[in-house]
Structure formats: structure tokens, C-alpha cells
User: Which sequence fits this backbone?
């Protein structure tokens, strides 16, 4: 009598314990899947990969004092054979293309059902890409229109500029942003200057007001 194949090992990277708990319970209900580790930040995830030896990593975009997009880029460079599935509440129109460009193999919005989550996990473990119908439509639309955006469009921001803009919208100051991303305050100020230029904002007050407005609207959506 042959023994069953080993379960696929999944590492969870999310800064919300309730999300990790929900995911772990969902995964452990599957006879062929298991959770091999949980972390809340990018540095912890990079360390856990070495010891946990996952077959798949499920990661959020926003992590504790770190960036999920930077984590995906680092994983692609350091562990290219381990696929990453992004599970996020963020708007697909802004983030889906960015995470795929960074090296992710799938994108699932946290509003999706548990069934869709399992479908995404299995698809990525098979070596395929996973996108929801909505995300596929968004990506196709962006490709068709060539992503021609106005100078004052959020889409014109780079990955790091968008992360800084989002942090400002959360009310986080430049010193803390610098600490979170392990960069200098001067570098954060340079990002802010570029954001103001791209969004046609005249000063720091306008930048902060626009960042807060955008962040509140994003969370409300």
C-alpha cells in the first residue's frame, strides 16, 4: 500500500492575525495542504522561507513595517522557484499589475470567497497564474489603453512612491516612513517631491491632504 504524497506546504505572510487564522483554518481543511509557518513582516518572511521550506507563499501587500511588493521582488531574486500568491484588500486597478510585475503568480482580493481562495492556491501550485475575472478585465483594459495616464494620475507613481503616498495617507510621518522602509529621511523627502510633481501638488499640505483623501477613499471602496 503506497503512502499518500506529502502535503503542499504554505507560508502565510500577513500583518493581521485574524486573516492568518482564517487562512490557516481554511488550508488545514484541505487534505493535501498544510501551513508550515506564519509571519507578519517581510524580514521575518525571508528568514522563515529558509527554515519552513514552503511550496507556496501567500502574502499581503501591506506588512508590518515593510512592503509586500518589495518582499515579492526579493523572493523572486532569492527563491525564484517558490511562487507567491497575493491576498489583499487593495484595489486591483492599482496593484494587480504591480504585483505581477514584481514576480507574483496570483492576485486574490480579500472580498473573494473561500472557494476562490482554494482555487487560486491550487492553480498557483500547479505552476499556473491566477487572476479573478475582475482582475483579468482590469489588466486587459489597462493593456488595451496602453496605460496612458495623465500627469496627475495615481497610476503614474512608482511602486515605492505609491507606498510612501499610502503611508502619508495613514498619518505616518516621514521619519517613521524612513524607519519602516529602512531608508533615510532625505530619500523619503525626495519621494515626496516626485509625488508632488507627478500629482501636480504645490506643497506638503496639499500632498498630505490628497494622500489622506485617497487613502480614506481606497479603504471605503
Assistant:
Amino acid at each position: 500500500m503506497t503512502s499518500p504524497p506529502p502535503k503542499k506546504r504554505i507560508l502565510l505572510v500577513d500583518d493581521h492575525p485574524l486573516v492568518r487564522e482564517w487562512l490557516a483554518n481554511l488550508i488545514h481543511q484541505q487534505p493535501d495542504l498544510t501551513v508550515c509557518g506564519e509571519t507578519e513582516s517581510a524580514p521575518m518572511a525571508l528568514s522563515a522561507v529558509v527554515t519552513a521550506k514552503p511550496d507556496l507563499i501567500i502574502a499581503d501587500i501591506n506588512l508590518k513595517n515593510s512592503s509586500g511588493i518589495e518582499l515579492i521582488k526579493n523572493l523572486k531574486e532569492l527563491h525564484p522557484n517558490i511562487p507567491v500568491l497575493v491576498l489583499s484588500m487593495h484595489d486591483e486597478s492599482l496593484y494587480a499589475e504591480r504585483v505581477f510585475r514584481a514576480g507574483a503568480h496570483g492576485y486574490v482580493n480579500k472580498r473573494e470567497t473561500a472557494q476562490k481562495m482554494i482555487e487560486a492556491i491550487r492553480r498557483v501550485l500547479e505552476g499556473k497564474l491566477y487572476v479573478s475575472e475582475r482582475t483579468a478585465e482590469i489588466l486587459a483594459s489597462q493593456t488595451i489603453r496602453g496605460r496612458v495616464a495623465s500627469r496627475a494620475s495615481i497610476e503614474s507613481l512608482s511602486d515605492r512612491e505609491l507606498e510612501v503616498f499610502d503611508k502619508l495617507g495613514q498619518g505616518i510621518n516621514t521619519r517613521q516612513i524612513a524607519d519602516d522602509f529602512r531608508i533615510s529621511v532625505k530619500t523619503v523627502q525626495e519621494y515626496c517631491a516626485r509625488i508632488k510633481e507627478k500629482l501636480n501638488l504645490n506643497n506638503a499640505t496639499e500632498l498630505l491632504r490628497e494622500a489622506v483623501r485617497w487613502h480614506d477613499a481606497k479603504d471605503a471602496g
